[in-house]
């Protein structure tokens, strides 16, 4: 099986990470793969290359206007990458490029389009993005397989005219990387100064409109009334002591138990040092932070937006958005769990993310679909 992945860029981003993890997992199974990046080298380029995956960078910005002409210039070098059994597009421009190269260079190859974007209403406010999404939608009926990251993503794309009955394969998470550090929990708590608190709740979310910090902070302060043994750690871009709007919503007495830690490069360690994860959102948002928290074994409280309930399931608490009372009650419910109850719930969290959302599990689904495509023939 020879797979050629084509992606818009290899910068830091969820789609890029998902492709990288899939490629490396399929490599373990003996699948021959190459990656074509329409732009220059990015964060994931070196990781793939160091693992022995050939990566070709076309080093072109590929604006939407003149996109096909830019692809034509790469015909000769792309043709030399054959033979190709499956062309796998990632991100909208990568999908367009995969369709183009299948028709022009590899007509016998199967075409797989990956759509990891949920296509939220906000995204469609951008004129060029709308045009790009429509273009991919028009060619999706010619694809052998269209893969979405969630039922809601499939629903929204198909509403825009995409090929019906696409396949849902959720995002995968690197559970093993957390397992390697799980025994360091007490050490990490002492390092961060968490050890003096009874329970540690953590939120990982950037300060942006989709994330509901006012509701979150009100619910937190309701649980801090008359006590100082709980710690709430908030991590994300703009979530720091310089954000006066955030600071203004917190009473001076609660500030000692609410730590605004800003953008961090050690999120995995902070999750492992915590007990629970809480996430308040106003509307559908990527749930990567929730999945990472589950990898750390943290029971999660999330607002019921997008596909949060599918990810968390019965292992966590799902509350309506913009509901301070119910969010506060969910925090209180978790805070009151004794050690045995906590360990039981944490174990269920780990079992769920490993069985349904681990990288090997997701790779199994992709691998099975690729084999099925090749059995179909032309």
List the helices and strands and how they pair.
Blueprint: E1 2-7, H1 14-28, E2 32-37, H2 43-50, E3 55-57, H3 67-72, H4 75-79, E4 86-90, H5 91-104, E5 110-115, H6 127-139, E6 145-148, H7 151-159, E7 167-168, H8 175-179, H9 185-192, E8 199-204, H10 213-224, E9 230-235, H11 244-248, E10 258-262, H12 267-272, E11 276-279, H13 288-295, E12 300-303, H14 308-312, E13 317-319, H15 324-335, H16 339-357, H17 359-376
Helix pairs in contact: 1-17, 5-6, 10-15, 16-17
Please provide a written account of the structure.
By secondary structure, this protein is α/β, with parallel strands linked by helices. It folds into two domains: 2-172 and 358-376, Rossmann fold (3-Layer(aba) Sandwich); 175-356, Rossmann fold, CATH 3.40.50. Helix content is 44%, strand content 16%. The strands form two sheets. It has a seven-stranded parallel beta sheet with strand order 3-2-1-4-5-6-7. A six-stranded parallel beta sheet has the order 10-9-8-11-12-13, sandwiched between helices. Helix 2 (43-50) links the parallel strand 2 and strand 3. The chain is elongated.
Classification by helices and strands: alpha/beta
Number of domains: 2
Radius of gyration: 22 Å
CATH architecture of the largest domain: 3-Layer(aba) Sandwich
CATH superfamily of the largest domain: Glycogen Phosphorylase B
What's the level 1 CATH class of the largest domain?
Answer: Alpha Beta
How far from one another are the termini? 15 Å
């Amino acid at each position: 099986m020879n797979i050629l992945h084509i992606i818009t860029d290899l910068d830091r981003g969820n789609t890029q990470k998902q492709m990288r993890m899939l490629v490396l997992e399929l490599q373990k199974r003996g699948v021959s793969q190459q990656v074509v990046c329409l732009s220059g080298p990015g964060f994931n380029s070196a990781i793939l290359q160091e693992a022995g995956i050939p990566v070709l960078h076309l080093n072109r910005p590929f604006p939407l206007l003149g996109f096909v002409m830019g692809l034509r210039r790469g015909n000769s070098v792309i043709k030399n990458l054959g033979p190709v059994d499956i062309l796998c597009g990632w991100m909208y421009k990568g999908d367009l490029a995969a369709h183009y190269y299948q028709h022009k260079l590899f007509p016998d190859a199967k075409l797989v389009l990956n759509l990891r974007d949920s296509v939220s209403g906000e995204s469609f406010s951008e004129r060029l993005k709308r045009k790009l999404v429509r273009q991919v939608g028009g060619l999706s009926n010619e694809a052998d397989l269209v893969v979405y990251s969630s039922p809601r993503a499939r629903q929204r794309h198909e509403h825009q005219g995409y090929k019906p009955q696409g396949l849902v394969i959720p995002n995968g998470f690197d559970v093993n990387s957390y397992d390697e550090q799980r025994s360091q929990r007490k050490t990490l708590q002492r390092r961060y100064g968490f050890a003096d608190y009874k329970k540690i709740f953590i939120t990982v979310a950037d300060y942006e409109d989709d994330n509901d910090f006012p509701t979150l902070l009100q619910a937190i302060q309701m649980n801090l009334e008359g006590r100082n043994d709980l710690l709430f750690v908030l991590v994300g871009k703009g979530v720091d002591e310089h954000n006066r709007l955030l600071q203004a919503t917190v009473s001076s007495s609660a500030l000692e138990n609410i730590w605004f830690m800003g953008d961090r490069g050690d999120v995995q360690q902070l999750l492992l040092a915590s007990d629970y994860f809480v996430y308040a959102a106003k509307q559908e948002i990527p749930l990567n932070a929730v999945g990472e928290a589950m990898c750390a074994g943290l029971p999660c409280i999330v607002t019921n937006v997008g596909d949060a309930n599918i990810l968390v399931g019965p292992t966590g608490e799902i509350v309506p958005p913009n509901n301070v009372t119910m969010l506060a009650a969910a925090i209180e419910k978790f805070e009151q769990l004794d050690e045995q109850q906590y360990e039981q719930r944490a174990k269920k969290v780990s079992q769920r993310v490993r069985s349904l959302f681990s990288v090997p599990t997701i790779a199994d689904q992709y691998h099975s679909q690729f084999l099925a495509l090749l059995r179909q023939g032309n």
